[in-house]
């Protein structure tokens, strides 16, 4: 099964096609469907007197557990899928929520952001980087106090409401042009966020700062 590294914002829910399931059936009888993903629900609002627009949310596992890519499903001795999933080579420990032209924040009410990730235990929790239209970001940490936590398949994990406050300027890399632009100014950039997979085989020399 595949967990998407790039998900699109949808009002009130998660993106289409990003929550894989698997089915089991004995002797060609009824098929039972089972969830393989958990949903992260982040709530964000603007500070009093401010209006903001969030363009991306980048979620990463602090214990380097895979969040996107191809996963295998274990098979029991009687030939049925067990639902136990394992990340394959090439998986990434981050996933990007693309908010298109931006999701507006106000101080009067919170906005909800949904992402789907593989169910399982995350040893050190997560960090979520909220990026606004000016490419300024705020980084929040979740599920870290108790040394991480388990996410159940088919469940929604909701996190407390936070107020957006820009902390630092970041360079967003979403395509090959962005990567080339970053290479030209790497020495003066404090931080960059890679928001998509870019094939650079045979095209690049190392970027140094």
Keywords for this structure?
209 residues; mainly beta; six-stranded mixed β-sheet; four-stranded mixed β-sheet; 1 helix; 48% strand; globular
Provide a descriptive summary of the structure in words.
This protein is mainly beta and 209 residues long. It has one helix at residues 176-185, and strands spanning 2-3, 6-8, 21-24, 32-35, 37-46, 52-61, 69-75, 81-87, 94-105, 111-118, 120-122, 126-132, 136-142, 149-151, 156-158, 162-164, 168-169, 171-173, 192-194. It starts with a strand and ends in a 15-residue tail after the last strand.
In summary, what is this structure?
With 209 residues, the chain is mostly beta strands. Helix content is 5%, strand content 48%. A hairpin with a 7-residue loop joins strand 3 and strand 4.
The order of strands across the largest sheet is 2-9-6-12-13-17
Proportion of β residues? over 45%
Kindly report how far apart the N and C termini lie.
38 Å
Helix content percent band:
under 10%
Structural class: mainly beta
Radius of gyration: 19 Å
Question: Which regions have little confidence, pLDDT < 50, spanning 5+ residues?
Answer: none
Question: How many beta-strand runs?
Answer: 19
Provide a count of the helices.
1
SSE string, helix = H, strand = E? EEEEEEEEEEEEEEEEEEHE
Mean pLDDT: 86
Largest sheet: 6 strands, mixed
Spatial shape: globular
């Amino acid at each position: 099964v595949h967990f998407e590294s790039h998900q699109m914002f949808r009002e009130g829910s998660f993106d289409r096609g990003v929550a894989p399931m698997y089915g089991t059936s004995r002797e060609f009888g009824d098929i039972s469907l089972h969830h393989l993903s958990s949903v992260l629900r982040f709530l964000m609002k603007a500070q009093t007197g401010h209006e903001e627009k969030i363009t991306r949310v980048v979620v990463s596992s602090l214990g380097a557990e895979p969040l996107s890519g191809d996963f295998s499903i274990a098979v029991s001795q009687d030939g049925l899928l067990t639902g136990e999933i394992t990340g394959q080579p090439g998986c990434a420990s981050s996933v990007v929520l693309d908010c298109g032209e931006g999701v507006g924040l106000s101080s009067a009410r919170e906005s909800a952001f949904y992402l789907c990730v593989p169910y399982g235990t995350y040893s050190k929790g997560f960090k979520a980087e909220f990026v606004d239209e000016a490419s300024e970001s705020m980084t929040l940490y979740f599920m870290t106090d108790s040394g991480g936590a388990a996410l159940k398949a088919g469940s929604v994990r909701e996190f407390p409401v936070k107020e957006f406050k820009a902390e630092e300027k970041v360079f967003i890399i979403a395509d090959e042009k962005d990567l080339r632009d970053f290479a030209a100014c790497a020495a003066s950039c404090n931080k960059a966020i890679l928001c998509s997979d870019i094939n650079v085989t045979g095209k690049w020399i190392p970027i140094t700062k």
